[in-house]
């Protein structure tokens, strides 16, 4: 049975057709790395009413390319001894990088329309989307952002946990208050499972991709970068049991490389640190030059590993 949708009224303005090219959505401080959200996902079916508490944190965001990623933690999941954490990647529908039609994940154009038209802020765009897929719409200053989130991995449980991440979320984000409304789509699960989240920022960590362009000062050290999801999985979601200690820059975690079985340390820089990034990297480079066995560091969205 579909979940009944009750949301705020649609905004008064509807995006106009773009005059020249497409522009990325406006920069939104509430949609940035480190932002946290909490709420519920309704997973009710015909047999019983059920809702899981959900926490989401954004770990990477690149508006220019319509990309973001993060972690989702589901609490009070039946038969699970611990909260279930997944890593997800998202598409920002800006009509430049991604359109209103998914074209994958077993979703048809009819499935797409049935879901995103449930958002009052986007349902008025249906006629234009049916004409040209919405490619002529300028969403750069629209007060809402439409996204699709696809879970990629279980972080702390195995694939035999009895849960599925085969589906994905249609998501509507409010730039004004950071609230999120969404619907989970999976043809083999209960339809229209509603996701409702509100901004709940306690601690921010991470940095937008624009802050992480490689500079000449960094190239001098011969550093290498790794995607956040690889480091996140390697540290088992920054579990406390992998914590080695805490320094001036942030926490240090133990990691065993899956291929070589080599042990490295991953240092996660904190925004609370009063020391700068260059000092952070300089410290690691100095340690590496003393020829310790292996030294690894992690900075925000990208990882950097050095050592002999």
Automatic annotation (TrEMBL):
GO cellular component term, pick one: GID complex
Homology family: Belongs to the GID4/VID24 family.
Organism name: Acer negundo (Box elder)
Protein kinase domain: residues covered: 238-308
One biological process term in Gene Ontology: protein catabolic process in the vacuole
Protein name from the UniProt record: Protein kinase domain-containing protein
One Pfam family from the record: Vac_ImportDeg
PROSITE patterns reported for this sequence: PROTEIN_KINASE_ATP, PROTEIN_KINASE_DOM
Renumbered residue ranges of the record's region Disordered: 1-20
